[in-house]
Specification:
The chain starts with a helix and ends with a helix. It has 782 residues and is α+β, with helices and mostly antiparallel strands. It is elongated. It has a 6-stranded antiparallel β-sheet with strand order 8-7-6-11-10-9. Strands 13-12-17-16-15-14 form a 6-stranded antiparallel β-sheet. It is 52% helix and 20% strand.
Length: 782
């Protein structure tokens, strides 16, 4: 009955679980919630066994039924074999008895043969015998079956007539007899005395077997019912256990969640064994990895802050019975190295084995400690601020009792610290305080409800402005401000007001005189504007004239230069005199200088007149820089200057090719011109974002700071006509600046006298089309 033992233990299963749980968490005893992870593992391990029990019970019942059914079938088969053997023996015996009777008596008496010669063992289980003649008519029958005499045996046995024909050779056959199942065996008697037939009714034969079957079926049914009832009880108990497990796990989850959210941990300290169990939330508070094992005393003791006591002292006091509960605040080290403030509350309990345990909770109070520290600091700062202010300060509660006042208040009203102790009624304080000589009520529409103010004159001649206001809890705060200087200033202000009125009268007279002079200035300004308009008209006419005269001025200069070059080179033959050659050289150089001067003047005139049109295109700025450097290389070589270029191989921008080249040539020519022989000229080129930066530096004489403000204007030079050493009109730098601005760029000049000059340009890479028209319009307006 092992199936029974494995099916009823719903309560027994819980007992085993409690035993395992107690073994797993022996130091927590009756606090099941502390061992939830181990309990959950145990539940998972028991679920397959719980589910296999019904299958085992059903399998047991099936095996028992098959085994018993096989035994009953074997028993029936054995009964059939026994009856067949007995019937054969009986038939053979009767045949032998008939022969013996024939030999001894000379005749065969069938009735006597059936009555006296048939053994009693052969006729058990309702078995009987009849003798029939050759026609099948029954001639004799055993006592009790006389009713069969005279009936046709062939009709009574149905289709089993072979027994009458073949006798013993037909064996034992299962047939019907009078409509009932029966086993029949026949034998032929001696001297044709007939056929003896032994008939075994199946009902009588299997009566005992059927009773055994009935008993077995009844017992199996009862056993199955009992087992199913046990299985039902087991399922019911298992369902309740699962519900209880689910409720327990849900409750544990809620408690664990509440502990985690509340920064609270459960702990159980086995004082005798020196071991401690922590809940998962306790590990989370200290940033440690949760585990189901207990912690030793040596693992926990180092986590405690050395200034917050020792666990040994607590253990000794608990073991000696000096304390029954614990409530203290201490610090424990977090996994990150910092310390966490915890407040532990616990009670001393004894478990079933009379072991002393300290069971309780630990709450993370780090925030409360930090808030308390900040509150203390804030109170100290507030008290310090109140103590160090220059005004008197007193704070009272809703029953007019002193809460706080500063030393300035005590000093002003002649009070001691005992007079203004916390909780002293304000009436008592005012009775001991120094009284003012005079008091005036101050009113103002800006005062809030419950706010009032008064001015008091103290015996030492000082004035105090006493401001009182009700607090939200019904108390009030009073602040006294020394307004002595304000009172003096008010007296002085009254005197100053009288003087101010006199000054205002004088100012009114002066204002009327100023208005008269302003009218005169307006007339002068009008005449100045007219003169300025005429001057600007003349300047525009001059600029327009120069722009229109570009062709007329260039044509004769080209002829002078061309003919002087022919004469200098002797194209049509020698002139004949060295002096004429030198004169032709001077004429040629002067013509070139005059042509450059006129070109610069005309370019500047076009820019000022707004008639210079730029043609933007995609150019390689690095190639343009190289071309400009080649042009100034000859002049630099004559002065033995070093030219240095720092530029990328290619740099594509959108710009006017001729104007860009003119900018570079003008700035490089100036650098070469003002650099002493043996010096150097440097050019740097790079792209920064959507702009190109060009810097040109030299080792020249430099430019004074006061000259940098005007440098870049037309005809502005740093040398006058008496001190300058280089030819020039000052238009090259002005043209370069104007062209840079027309391209939407900027130009900056930095220089130090005796060290050199750096000119920096910033040109847009692809934004020239957007700024072209606005730049031309700006230059035209200028």
């Amino acid at each position: 009955m092992r199936a029974d033992a494995s099916s009823a233990p719903a309560g027994g299963r819980l007992s085993r679980f409690e035993t395992l749980l107690s073994a797993k968490a022996e130091i927590v005893g009756h606090a099941k919630i502390l061992a939830a992870p181990a309990y959950e593992k145990l539940l998972r391990s028991e679920r397959p066994l719980r589910r296999s029990i019904p299958i085992l019970i059903i399998l047991f019942l099936t095996i028992a039924a098959v085994a018993r059914l096989s035994a009953l079938v074997a028993e029936r088969y054995e009964i059939e074999n026994d009856v067949a053997r007995d019937l054969k023996i009986a038939a053979t015996l009767m045949r032998a008895e008939s022969q013996f009777a024939l030999m001894s008596e000379g005749q065969i008496d069938g009735a006597a043969l059936l009555t006296s010669e048939v053994p009693r063992e052969v006729i058990e289980y309702g078995r009987f015998a009849v003798i029939s003649d050759a026609t099948g008519r029954i001639t004799a029958a055993m006592p009790g079956y006389e009713r069969l005499i005279g009936q046709d045996l062939r009709l009574l046995m149905g289709e089993s007539q072979a027994l009458l024909m073949f006798g013993e050779r037909a064996g034992v056959q299962e047939t019907d007899f009078e409509g009932h199942d029966a086993f029949v065996a026949s034998a032929t008697l001696a001297e044709d005395a007939g056929t003896v037939s032994f008939i075994q009714p199946a009902t009588d034969l299997f009566a005992g077997w059927r009773q055994s079957v009935h008993v077995n079926v009844t017992l199996f049914a009862l056993t199955s019912i009992i087992m199913l009832m046990v299985l039902y009880a087991y399922f019911r108990q298992a369902t309740r256990a699962e519900d209880a497990d689910a409720l327990y796990l849900e409750t544990h989850l809620r408690v664990d969640t509440a502990l985690s959210r509340g920064h609270c941990g459960l702990w159980d300290w086995d004082i005798g064994r020196g071991r401690m169990y922590w809940s998962r939330s306790m590990y989370e508070i200290l940033g440690m990895k949760p585990k189901d094992d207990v912690l030793s005393f040596g693992e926990i003791a180092p986590l405690l802050h050395p200034l917050d006591g020792s666990l040994f002292d607590v253990a000794r006091r608990v073991a000696s019975g000096r304390i029954g509960h614990l409530d203290r605040v201490f610090r424990m080290r977090h996994s990150n190295g910092n310390y966490v403030w915890l407040r532990a509350r616990a009670d001393v309990t004894r478990c079933a084995d009379n072991e002393v345990h300290l069971i309780g909770i630990a709450v993370d109070v780090s925030e409360q400690q930090e808030l308390a520290r900040r509150s203390d600091e804030a109170n100290e700062q507030l008290n310090s601020a109140i103590e160090n202010i220059s005004e008197t300060f007193v704070l009272c509660d809703n029953r007019d009792r002193v809460i706080l006042c500063n030393s300035k208040y005590r000093e002003t009203f002649g009070l001691t610290e005992m007079d203004v102790a916390r909780g002293t009624p304000l009436e008592t304080v005012m009775a001991k305080a120094r009284r003012p000589i005079d008091s005036q009520l101050v009113t103002s529409p800006t005062f809030a409800a419950g706010e009032r103010a008064s001015e008091a004159l103290l015996p030492d001649g000082r004035w105090l402005l006493m401001s009182e206001r009700r607090t939200t809890d019904g108390g009030f705060v009073s602040i006294g401000t020394d307004v002595t200087q304000l009172k003096l200033h008010q007296a002085r202000l009254s005197d100053s007001e009288r003087r101010l009125i006199a000054v205002i009268e004088d100012l009114s007279t002066a204002r009327r005189d100023a208005e008269r002079k302003a009218g005169q200035l307006t007339e002068l300004n009008t005449s100045f504007a007219a003169e300025k308009e005429r001057a600007e008209t003349a300047s525009r006419a001059k600029t327009t004239f120069l722009a229109n005269m570009s062709h007329e001025l260039r044509t004769p200069l080209n002829a002078i230069l061309g003919f002087s070059e022919i004469m200098r080179d002797g194209t049509f033959g020698p002139i004949g005199c060295q002096k004429y050659t030198e004169y032709c050289e001077d004429i040629h150089q002067s013509g070139h200088y005059l042509l450059r001067l006129i070109n610069d003047i005309l370019d500047m005139a076009k820019i000022e007149a707004g008639r210079l049109i730029l043609n933007p295109e995609d150019i390689d700025l690095a190639e343009t820089v190289a071309e400009a450097m080649k042009i100034v290389a000859i002049q630099a070589e004559k002065k033995q200057l070093t030219l240095a270029v720092a530029a990328p191989p290619t740099l594509q921008i959108r710009s006017d090719r001729r104007a860009t080249k003119q900018i570079l040539i003008n700035l490089l020519s100036n650098a070469v011109k003002f650099t002493e022989p043996g010096g150097s000229v440097r050019l740097g080129l790079k792209q920064v974002g959507d702009a190109v930066l060009i810097s040109i530096g030299d080792d020249g004489m430099g430019i004074p700071q006061e000259a940098l403000r005007t440098l870049g204007r037309p005809f502005e030079q740093i040398e006058n006509e008496w001190t300058r050493t280089n030819k020039g009109t000052g238009l090259g730098l002005a043209i370069a600046r104007s062209l840079v601005e027309l391209h939407g760029g900027r130009m900056r000049i930095s220089s130090r006298v005796g060290i050199g000059t750096i000119v920096a340009l910033r040109l847009p890479v692809a934004g020239f089309e957007q700024s072209e028209q606005s730049a031309i319009a700006m230059a035209s307006a200028a």
